[in-house]
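Example 3.
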Amino acid sequence: MKIFIKKLFRRNTENNLKKFEGYLPSKEQVRLISTSLKENIDFIKKLFSEDRWLKYSEFKLSDNGELAGILYVEGLADVGVVNHNIVNRFSNHDPAINKAKGLQNKNQLQLIKESFFPTVELKETGRMEQVIAALLDGNTCLFVDGEDKALVLSTRMIEKRSIDTSETEASIYGNKEAFTEDIKTNCMMVRRRLPTPDLQFKSFHLGRLSHTNTVLMWIEGIANPKYIQEVCERIRRIDVDNIFGVSMISEMTEDAPLSIWPKYKMTEKPDAVVAGFTFPQTLIYWPTRLINYFLIAMSGILGLYGVLLGFTVIMWHLVSLRPFGIPYFYPMAPMDVNSFKDTLIRAPQWKQTKRPELISRKNVYRKGTGSGKPKPPDGKDESGK
Amino acid sequence: MKNIRKISYNQTMLMVFLGTAGNLVYIHTEAGAIAGRSGWICTIVATLVVIMLCIFMVRVGSRFQGKSILTIIEDSFGRVVSCIVSIFYIVLMILLSATNLSLFAGVVNAYILILTPKWVPIFLLLVVCALIAGSGIEVLARMSIIFSLITIVNYNAANILAVVTTFDYKLLLPQFERPFITYIQGMYLILSSMLETFLFAAIGIENMPMNPRPYKAVAKGLLISSFFVVTVPTSFIGILGLTEATRTGYVAFNMFHGIQIGRFIQGMEVFVMITYYVIAVAKISINLFILKTALSHIIGKSHGRLAIVCTTVLVFVFFLKYISFNKAYLFAIQLAEYVTLPFVIFLSLIAAICLAVGKRKELKGKT
C-alpha cells in the first residue's frame, strides 16, 4: 500500500513536471547563434510566426558588402530610441571611415561596439534563447553576417507614471512619496535616502514566462550575510510561470506560509523601507485580534486552564516560526537583553544605541557616543552665560 | 554531529531551572516535614551535591565533543549496552513524567476543573507538550525562556505580597531543633528528586554550548531553582507556621488565598495556578524531549516524530494508572529514592569508565 501511494505520488509529480516543461524555452530555441545572418533572422521570424510587431532592418557595413541586421519588437522597444540610437547611426555611417581608423582588422562586432555605440548600454551573447528573451524584454538585437554572436542593445520602452503620494499609508509629518511600478525609479528612491555604497542591490528575473525583474536590497555591513544568503537561495528556488506581485514572492519564500502571523512588512513608501533596514518590524495587530476569538473559545470550554493551553499553543507557534532564519520571537526568545529597548515598550530614540545583534552581528552600534540624551550645554545657566 | 542543534548559555540555564523546579514544586515542603524549620539546609546541601554530579557529567560530555551519554556509552561499550541503558532511561522517564502529571492533575482537579475528569486536561496538556518537544531543542529552549520569565515574575509577585502582609519571623524559630539524622533524611529526599536534572544534563549535553562552558550554565540553573526551593517553603513556614505549612495539601494555594489587601487585591491563588501550569508544561516537555532522544537512539534519529508519539502515548497510559494524587505522591518519592538515585549513580560510574577508556585510547594513539 505504502509503495503504491509512493508510486502514485511520484507519477503525479513527474506528470506535473512534464507539463511544466512546456513553459521553458523550447528545445529549438536553445541553440547557438549561427554565423549566417539570414539563417538567424529566418529562424527568429519563424519562431515569432511572422509576427507583424517584429521589425527588421538591414544595413551595409562596408564596401565589401558585409551586412548587419537589427531586430526589435515594436511596442516593447522604444521606436524613437531605436531610430535615434541605432538606425540613424548606421544610416549616417560611411563604410570608408573604418579603413581610415585602421579598424578593418578587428572583428565586426568589436568594431560596431567601438565606433557606433561607445556610450550605449549593450551586451554580447552567443545564445539564441537569450536573444529571444532580450527581444521580448524590449531590447534590440543586432546580428552581423559572419559573426556567431549578437549584440543586445537596451531600447526598452518604459511607460511610467510620476512619483505620487501613498494612498494606503498616509503620512502626516514624514515624506509622502510612494513607490511606482518602475523598479529602477523605486531603487533610486531608496538610494537617494541612503546615499552610501554599502546599499547593495541584487537582481533576479523571476517567472519562466514573465521574467519579472526583482531586486533585493540590503546594507552591507549591517545585514547578517547568513540571512542574505538564505533570502537569495529562497528567491532563486522560485520556479513559476508568472509573478503577480510582491505578495506572491513573499508567499513563495516565507516559512510557515499558512500561519496568520505576518513575517514581512509590505509597504509602498521608500522611507518605510529605509527605516526597515535599521528597525526591523512587522505588524501583529490583526492576527492578535483574530487570536482573541480562539482564546475566548478555549476559555469558554475549559476556563482559565483553556486560556493557559491556548496561550501555550500560540507561544509555541510563534516561537517555532523562523522567517528567513530569524527566530520570530527574537529578542525575547532567544533572549537578547540589549534589544529589549524596542520590544514591549519602546525606549527613547537616544537610548536605542544598538541594533539587534542576531540580525547585524558585526556592526552593532547604530548611534555614536555624541547622540545621547539631549541636554543644555554644560556650565551655562538660564541667562546663557 | 553536523545536525545537532545547539542552544545558548542562558537557555541551558533556564531549562535546568525549570526541570528542577518542575520536580520539586510538589515535594519541597516534605523536607520541612522531615527536618522541621531548618529544612532549607537540606536543600542547600542537596543542591551542592547535584551541582557536583552534574558538573562531572557535563565535563565528561564536553570531553567527548558534546556527545550525549547514550552516544558516549555506544562509542565505549557498543550498541547493545547503549540500547539497554536507553531502555532504562525510557522506562524511568515515562514513570517520572506520569507521576508528575498525576500530581499536576490533582492540582487542576482541586482548584480549576473540579467536575471535569482528570484525564481530559492532562491529555490536552500532553498534546501541547508533545508539540513543543517534537519541534526540537531550539523551540523547547525558547519556550523555556518565556516559561521562566512567567514563573519568576508570577510567583515572586505573589510571594512578596504574601510575605509583606502576613509574614512572622517568630514562626521560623527555633532553628536546628530536630535530630541530625532528620537533616540527612531530608537531604536524601531532596537530592533524589533533584537528580532528574542530572538525567537531563546527561542527554542534553550534546545540545549545550561548549563556549562558555556548559557546566556553569547547569550550576547556575540549579542554584536559581534551589533559591526558590529554599525561600518558598521558608516563607510558607513564616506565614502559616510549621505544622500547617508541612501538613496541608496544596499549601501554596491556601497561602495565596489568604492574601487580602483592601477589597481589590485578593484571590491571588490564580497566580500559583499559572505557575504550576507553566512549570508542568516545561517539565513534561523536557521529559518528552529526553524520551524522544532516548527512543530515537534505539530506532534511529530519523524517526523522531514516531518516537515522540509513542512516548507520549506511553506517558498517558501510565498516568491513567497513577491517576490518584496520593498514590502518585508516594510513588514519586519512592521512585526518586529507590530508582532515580541508583540509576544516576550507575550512569556516573559508567561515565567515569567511559572517560578512563577514552583517555587510554588517547594515550595509545599518542604512543
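The first strand of chain B starts at residue 260 and ends at 261. The interface with chain A takes residues 8, 10-11, 108, 112-113, 116, 121, 124-125, 128, 131-132, 135, 139, 141-143, 145-146, 270, 273-274, 277-278, 281 of chain B (CB under 8 Å).
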